[in-house]
Amino acid sequence: METGINNILTKLTESEGVVGVLIADEHGLCLGARGIAKASSAGFIASIASHAKELAEMKRNGSDGKDDTPTISVDYGQHTILIRSEGNHTLAVWKS
Asked: Which GO terms describe its cellular component (predicted)?
């Protein structure tokens, strides 16, 4: 699994405009980080994704029941962080 995560991190880091990438597990443990992404932010990233998912579930209450996992965009300075949780993992991508 570690090799797979490293391959994903490397491939994403090489994408145009990407300056950092982080993958965290469901407990906020950093599974890997590249570029400007700091491993110490994994817990915050996972928490943001978890809370956004809870808000989306509240909004869906009584709707068609589609499981649309939210993508969170945090803009600051010259960077944007895109955060998305899939299954037991959360991915954060820093773009410039």
From this structure: Ragulator complex
Q: Which residues contact 4 (CB under 8 A, 6 or more apart)?
A: none
Residues 68 and 59 sit within 8 Å (Cβ to Cβ)? no
CA dist., res. 91 & res. 13, Å (int): 12
Burial of 89 (0-12, 13-18, 19+ CB in 10 A): middle
Domain boundaries, the chain: 1-58+67-95
**Domain 1-58+67-95, CATH homologous superfamily name and number:** Dynein light chain 2a, cytoplasmic (3.30.450.30)
pTM of the predicted model, to two decimals?
Answer: 0.86
Q: How far apart are CA 28 and CA 78, in angstroms?
A: 25
